[in-house]
Amino acid sequence: MKAFWLINLGLFQLAWWSAAWLTQSASYIIAGLIILHCLLSPCVRADLRLMALLPLGLLVDGALIALGAFRGVDSAFPLWLALLWVIFLMSLNHSLRLLSGLGLPWLMLIGAFGGAGSYWAGLSLGALATPLSDLNFWLVTAPVWAVLLPLLVWGQGKVSAPQASKLTG
Q1: pLDDT of 20-37, one tens digit each?
Q2: 1: which DSSP letter?
């Protein structure tokens, strides 16, 4: 299904907005969206292989929480945040696939503003809380995401490489 990237984009956006607006129900909604993604994906095995990158995302968020950059409103590390990582990683094979063709400076810039901006928007909508000023929040999270996004894109390439070689070989 060539248009699956659009479906993935919609599912990821639904997951993000449910996390931002419906935090108490978000875990159920995002879990359902992940299941729907797996049912519809033309390459579910490749998507599931990306879960090898999940510990990195959870570790980074765990470190940011431990450092006090942010926390969940109801718990330090909300389940919906872990589930959001799952659908985000799956998006690297679909709606975010174009990132794999970008150079390091672009990935760093997109990570710094897009990644950190996503958390900042979550703070603004009340899904997350922080004791930091806006400036200090950006000074902490933007450099982290400037490194993290390129690592995730590189990791996606490494995790996907064995499958690509099977297809061409």
Answers
A1: 999 889 999 999 999 999
A2: -
